[in-house]
Every structure is written in structure tokens, then in C-alpha cells.
Amino acid sequence: MRTNNRREFLKNGALAGLGLISSNVLFASSTMEINKDSSLNFQETGKRLLGSGKHQLEVSAFGLGCMGMSYHRSFVPDRQVSINLIRKAAELGINFFDTAEAYGPWINEELVGEALQPIRKEILIATKFGFVDGTPAKGLDSRPETIRKVVDQSLKRLKTDYIDLLYQHRVDPNVPMEDVAGTVKELIQSGKVRNFGLSEASAENIRKAHAVQQVTALQSEYSLVTRQPETTVIPVCEELGIGFVPYSPLSRGLITGYINERTKYNANNDNRPALPRYQKDAIIANWTLIDALKDFGDLRGLTVAQVALAWLLAQKPFIVPIPGTTKLAHLKENFDSREFQFKPEELKELTAALDKIKIVGERAVGQQASQINN
Ligand SMILES: NC(=O)c1ccc[n+]([C@@H]2O[C@H](COP(=O)([O-])OP(=O)(O)OC[C@H]3O[C@@H](n4cnc5c(N)ncnc54)[C@H](OP(=O)(O)O)[C@@H]3O)[C@@H](O)[C@H]2O)c1
């Protein structure tokens, strides 16, 4: 992080904390200047709010998904490159960073902790518990004693004494949701955790959890190829004042045009080869979606990824996607998409066109499928 920018970031963060400048100023980037002269309908859309009341978090329009820097996205960049990228994200105005015990396991939390330690008070860290030994393939474990143990270990790895948002990574059918929420409630009372979240929980489980400990955010897969949350859980989040954090908002790179039927993966560190949507026939069949996004974006100076991300933001004000990347160019591209403001008519037309495209291939199979929407 360059000293001047870092100083500016810290100064702005401190001023915002004191309520002396508006968050729009805090999140304004150099693109503000471009806006003034641009003939395009870009707008600075600023911060978003997740949750409500005393469990509300003020976050940038996008968070940064850090998983792929260590886990499940084939290559792992040099560690210092990832640390620099995370710090650069903060410098650009991203204040919401996503990790989990399971990413690695453990090494992604260590990476995120090291990267963010110098600016810990200016940013928000979200992490997750919920698997045996932090390993999804070993099964689910949300027993109260495990949650307490994992939180202590996560705090060490993250080099911090509090977690801003602690998600249950997957619902554990063997532990009543009330017990999970009650355990997190105690952790909040002890100061180790500040807010509670769920991931891939059903409407019924969201309600059960929220009745015991207010839920700040639900993190579930949501993108232009996975639209089920629109009818299942997003309405519940809206009703209860819970934020919604779409994970894999670019469908693991699929909705960018970068992945095609010839793409090779490192099967030892990638879950995509095992998922139906990343099989050759499905990629070819679903290319109609890429074409539609490209047609829309070409006329407006947007990339395929930017249209896909701007579309997600346009769905609800409490939606905060967390695209993952290992590249500064993609980070900037993704974050800049917050500035595109759809005209109501063009949003309607694009959505109607996208609604007609039938997506080929299930989003998950086997153990992964059995662990979602519980
Ligand atoms: N709660 C859960 O169960 C769960 C599950 C999965 C993920 N997550 C969280 O969600 C985050 C994001 O999910 P994800 O990584 O699965 O999917 P994603 O954000 O939809 O896609 C990430 C992939 O897209 C590529 N990409 C990103 N921006 C791009 C751009 N502008 N142009 C071209 N390619 C681009 C990245 O490659 P490059 O590195 O080359 O840019 C990476 O391979 C994770 O980091 C994690 O924090 C949560």
C-alpha cells in the first residue's frame, strides 16, 4: 500500500468513524472525476447496509471474496501478491472481506489476517465455521463446543480479538438451529464476535436463528445462473431486515466469458470440474447468457462481468456481492461496476431477455448438493 493513499484511507476511515464525512465521500474513488465528464449514466452508489438495528453493518457495495487466493480456484498466487491485492482493495474503498476456516483449511484466514492487521479497525472481517476439522469433505459440525473452539482458533489466525461477522457455513441437521444461534449469541456477549450470519440456510432455519440471535446477513450462491434465492430466501431477508451476500456472483468465473469449454483446471485445487455447469456441453449451451450480457455491455462500455455484477446490485439495496479474484485488473473492473446505474426500462428489458435463457446443468451434486438449502 503506498503511504500517501494509505494515510488518506486511514484518515478518511477515522473521520467517517467520527461521523465527520459522509460515507459517499469515504467510498468515492478516482472514478468520481470521470463521472462528472462521462456521457454514460455512471453514478457513485456508495455504501450499503447489511442487517438492521444494533446488528447492522455499513459496507462497501462489494466485498472481496478471498477464498480463491488459497483454495478451489486452481492456481494459488504468490502469498505477497495476495496480501498486496487485499490491501489494495481496502485502499480502493472495499471494507468487507470474506474468508472461512474451511478455505485451505486455515491458510486463507491466516493470509487475510496478515493482510488486514495494519488496518484492522478500518475494515470488517467475515469468517465461517461449520465443518469437521474445517474440512467440508469430512462432514458438518456445528456443535456448540466446536463453534467456541473454532472461533478461538480463527481469532488467532486472523490476528484479531473480534470477528465482525461470523457465519455458520452450512446448516448442521444434527444440531438444532436454536443451539447454534444461542452459542453465537454468547460469543457476541463475550465480545469475540460482533454479528451473526448464515450461509445456504433455508427460510425456515433463517427464521429459527433470527428468533434467538438477530441475523445480520445470509450468504448464499446467487448469480445470473443461480436465481433460486429470488423466490426462496431473499424475500425472507427483506421481511426480517437481513442483508443478502451473494457468493460466487460470477458463477466461479463462468459469467465473464473467460471460462470456455477448453479451460483446464487443477483438479487438486478446484471444485469446478466436479460441478455440472462447468462441463463442456453446459458451458457451450449457456453461452447465450454471455452473448446477451456482452450485447448489453458493449453499447455501454461495460464488460460481461460488470453487467452481471451491476445487475445483482440493482435487484435489492441490501444485496452485497463478494466476487473473488487474484488480479488487480479484475478487482478494479468488478468494483467499478457499482457505478453503473440501470435506467428502469433497460433493467426491465435486460432481465426479460435473461429470463428467457434456460440455464443448463445443476449448480451442485452429491455431498455439496446435500449440504445446501437446509
Ligand atoms: N458461503 C459459501 O459457501 C461460499 C462458497 C463459495 C465461495 N464463497 C465466497 O465467495 C467468494 C467468491 O466466490 P467464487 O470465488 O466462488 O466465485 P466468483 O467470485 O463468482 O468467481 C471468481 C472467479 O472468477 C474470476 N474472475 C473474477 N473477476 C473476474 C473478471 N472481472 N474477469 C474475469 N474473471 C474474473 C476469478 O479469477 P481471477 O482470480 O483470475 O480473477 C475467479 O476464478 C469466495 O472468495 C468466498 O469468499 C462462499
As a whole number of angstroms, the C-alpha radius of gyration is 20 Å
Bound molecules: NADP nicotinamide-adenine-dinucleotide phosphate
Helix content: 40-55%
Q: How many β-strand stretches?
A: 9
Secondary-structure element pattern, one letter each: HHHEEEHEHEHEHEHEHEHHHHHH
Explain this structure:
The chain is of the alpha/beta class. Helix content is 41%, strand content 10%. The protein contains 15 helices and 9 strands. It has helices at 3-17, 23-27, 31-37, 79-92, 107-116, 144-157, 177-190, 203-212, 234-240, 280-285, 287-298, 304-315, 328-336, 344-355, 366-370, and strands at residues 48-50, 57-59, 64-65, 96-98, 124-129, 165-168, 196-199, 215-221, 243-247. The strands form 2 sheets. It has a 7-stranded parallel β-sheet, with helices on one face. Helix 4 packs across helix 5 and helix 11 crosses helix 12. It binds NADP nicotinamide-adenine-dinucleotide phosphate. NADP nicotinamide-adenine-dinucleotide phosphate binds at residues 65-68, 73, 98, 169, 199, 219, 247-253, 256, 258, 305, 322-327, 330, 333-334.
